[in-house]
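Incident log, support desk, overnight shift.

02:14 A customer reports that sequence design results differ from what the structure should imply. Their input is reproduced verbatim below. On-call engineer (initials T.W.) acknowledged and began investigating.
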């Protein structure tokens, strides 16, 4: 049951230092992947002496997927490490609990290589480890949200109650790497990160979940690190890019990406199963097409959520061989002209 105690044979055994308090069962289509991967896979690397909150999985000769349990009751997350000839790229930084920088340096066997930390978006589970690095990158449309929501020494307070106890997931507050100011560097669509010897990673916007949600295309491995692209969120009123938070923007950005499927072999998202065939992008585009045609009439389901004390009705549109796009009717169409 969501928020309840797990049924023993559905629980995924783990040596992580974190421990769920409020537990929600993984999506049915993801659970077998996660259980087999985390309990039996030979890809798994775990270094509790460096970071007891993160599991590493070597998915290519120079790429690792980093697993961290959700600290706030939402979905467990993935971060990714690309070891280039001269520089290392880290896609997302998680909750900032445990030494992420030290783990990355251990995996690539170097403390001297520059680590390029790049965020897909500003949400808690993707950017709260930023302060472990001197500078971090994001799409230019995400800059406002990042400064507003992720760049503060109080970002972890919501994980604890008034008495200082964990609310969602048990972990040692002393294991949060203390916040320090860092340089935030916004980049435009198509920005190229050069990891040395012509090893290029491209910033590819897939906005909608947030104002500047951005995927990163590893051109050598033909992998798209996609972030979160199945839920459409709301923007912040003063954000000049707030109108990107809708289905239409994701639909238009997805069309541009789907036109490049010959460059993409695998999708590695921020949550759930990874190394997914790139055809899932085409299937998601099909779902977005149906929403744009009739957002209410074509919906496969609805669900009520409470947000800021108010009930919000969310709609779902199923993605063939995937999960679903989640949206509400207020965030379907743009109010301003689309800009790539």
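02:41 Re-run completed on a clean worker. Output:
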């Amino acid at each position: 049951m969501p928020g309840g105690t797990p049924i023993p044979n559905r629980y995924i055994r783990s040596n992580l230092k974190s421990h769920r308090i409020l537990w929600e069962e993984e999506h049915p289509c993801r659970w077998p992947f996660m259980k087999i991967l985390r309990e039996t896979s030979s890809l798994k690397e775990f270094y509790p002496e460096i970071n007891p909150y993160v599991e590493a999985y070597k998915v290519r000769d120079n790429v690792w997927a980093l697993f961290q349990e959700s600290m706030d009751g939402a979905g467990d997350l993935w971060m990714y490490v690309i070891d280039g000839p001269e520089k290392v790229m880290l896609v997302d930084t998680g909750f900032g609990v445990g030494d992420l920088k030290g783990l990355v340096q251990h995996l690539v066997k170097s403390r001297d290589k520059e680590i390029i930390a790049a965020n897909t978006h500003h949400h808690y589970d993707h950017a709260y480890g930023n302060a472990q690095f001197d500078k971090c990158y994001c799409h230019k449309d995400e800059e406002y949200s990042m400064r507003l929501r992720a760049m503060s020494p109080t970002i972890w307070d919501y994980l604890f109650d008034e008495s200082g106890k964990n609310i969602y997931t048990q972990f040692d507050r002393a294991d949060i790497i203390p916040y320090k100011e860092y340089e935030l560097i916004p980049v435009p669509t198509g920005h190229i990160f050069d990891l040395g010897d012509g090893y290029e990673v491209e910033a590819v916007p897939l906005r909608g979940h947030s104002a500047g949600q951005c995927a990163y295309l590893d051109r050598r491995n033909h992998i798209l690190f996609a972030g979160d692209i199945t839920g459409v969120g709301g923007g912040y009123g003063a954000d000049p890019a707030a109108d990107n938070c809708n289905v239409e923007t994701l639909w238009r950005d997805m069309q541009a990406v789907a036109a490049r499927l010959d460059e993409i072999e695998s999708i590695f998202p921020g949550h759930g199963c990874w190394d997914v065939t790139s055809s899932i992008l085409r299937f998601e585009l099909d779902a977005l097409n149906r929403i744009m045609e009739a957002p209410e009439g074509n919906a496969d389901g609805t669900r009520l959520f409470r947000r800021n004390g108010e009930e919000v009705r969310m709609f779902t549109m199923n993605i063939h061989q995937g999960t679903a796009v989640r949206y509400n009717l207020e965030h379907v169409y743009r109010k301003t002209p689309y800009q790539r």
